[in-house]
Amino acid sequence: MKQYEYVAAIAKYGSISQAADALDVAQPTLSKYLKKLESDLGVELFDRSTIPLSMTKAGEKYVETGKQILMLENELQKFIDEYNNRPSVIRVGISTSRSPYLMPVIIAAYQEKYPNHRIVISEGKTDELQKKLIHGDVDLIISLLDDESAAFEHIPLFNEDVLLAVPKSAAEKNSSVMEILKNSPLITVGKGQVLWQSTQGIIDTVDTKTPLIECQSVESALAMVRCGLGVTLIPSYIYEFGNAQNREIYFIKLPDELSEQVLKNGRRTVCVFYRREQFLSKAEKAFIECAKEVKQLYSFQMQTNFT
Question: Which terminus of the chain has fewer Cβ atoms in its 10 Å neighbourhood, N or C?
Fold first, then answer.
């Protein structure tokens, strides 16, 4: 399978030197390997006149076929490992913001059943995770159910609302959500994310100010809230599965009329996804069962300051 891995790495990085670093092989070795492979095939896989390297049509077909072969090889290896009762590897994709809240408790429960199995967590944005699942780079992903995820099999885990995270100082000065939104600086996450779109809807509906601070992650936005710099919208798992730091923050449910008008996708469903044609090992099924019980697995429930 080495030839497919090597060519796929060169295609990914568009550079033999960067691919060599990622593969932990010497650049001259990888260059010679590619030249010999192209000679054996009788075609060039890459156009070396471009920077970064671009694939020829033959190269595109080679990489596409190679990924399918690597995926089948991985499926076969999973089956053989299970057949021989050998420890396996589960590769799980999840967003950077959800991972620290969900993965520790899921993995702790899973390792009680499979203590010797290895788990590799791949973090990224939703579209990145979906591409990794399609290409077989991960076995499962935990993400939101949306139109783009329709191509996968999915198992619902829990519903997720959008809440308003408020510092104590702002909550004590104002008696209603609307007053807090009008009188407090807004903090938002990066443009293009769902919470960014929801924040823009809040601005238009409540006639509040444009956000003064834009972060790239929910955790960064929450850090700003803890310092009293403003308020931000957060997914409800932050409240439900949050750590002790978040007890310093007031989590407020948005009024129904505001949720319906502004947050049309305010309630989302978090699911485990896998490819439809995928062989699910016993270990992967056990991991999914642990994920389905994630809410019950937490030994505490945080108390709300507002309803």
Answer: C
